[in-house]
Fold:
Amino acid sequence: MGSMPAESVEIAKAELTKLRRAGYRVVGGHSAVKICHWTRSVLRGGKNCYKGWYGIKSHRCLQMTPALQYCNMMCIFCWRHHTINRITGVGGEWDRPEDILDGLIREQRQLLSGFKGNPIVDKRLFDEAMEPKHVAISLDGEPTIYPYLADMVKLIKSRGMTAFLVTNGTNPERLMELTEEDAEPTNLYISLYGPDPEAHKRICRPLIPDSWERLVESLKVMREFQKSVKVVRLIMINGYTIRDPEKYAELIRIAEPDFIECKGYMHVGESQKRMKREAMPSLDEIRPFAIKLAEALGYEYLAEDRPSRVSLIANPSSPHYDVVKMKALGFSQ
Ligand code: SF4
Structure:
């Protein structure tokens, strides 16, 4: 894999400075790490992120992307900066998974080094944080654009870490590659941005013509995963997506996920230029919708997390149900 086919890849210099200021550390041509808010929170003695439901320990999480600024949609709610050249880029080679992962872990350690010796940071937690255990492939960009994603997941798992992948579902072929032996991520998320093609187009502003059809195809591919904890995530936006639970249920039935997260849009970052603050729903606005959705599917309204404005719905016949339920009830607040 030393010399990879040239495709799109190189981060413009001006962007690099901006990203660095925002706390990103770029490795190679198209990958980056950023310390997650919840990683800092746990190190300072605070709360874990709600993905503790699935066993994630935030202080041991590496939040990264192998497709920095490469995406085939321009979602209105996205908190990232939308660049031009988001699909094609400016030429170069795709980096190898080993180089990306080693580089990101190195940068993460560097970024965390400031916590060493801080009297409020527990030494055991700090030492654990220096040895990441979870890789959240979800920081920025659409990770399925990276052509060696299956090898990346295999590498992560071969090192005894868990792989947590979030995709917009527009790349069913790449997703299919992940159904291979050892390439299934520990957690697989597909995001839904609206219950029908019209809402999807309005909210995602796709840069490819068939994003909806590809998303539906990805929902079918999700069924093929045997080991992953499969989650469909709904982005809840007041005035846009909190409606038509039956329509969502129809789509979700295609994927047969273990869990559904109804996650409130957060009015942060660049999205503030595109959205009004009122578009951000409270948990109390999300819950009634989530309960209706659970009823429509025959799933169970399992837990919620107020700070992250998320409701968790579970498939009671999922093999992961008991473990997640136990953890979720411990984490809910
Ligand atoms: S799973 Fe996501 S939110 Fe939780 S610590 Fe990792 S990057 Fe942060």
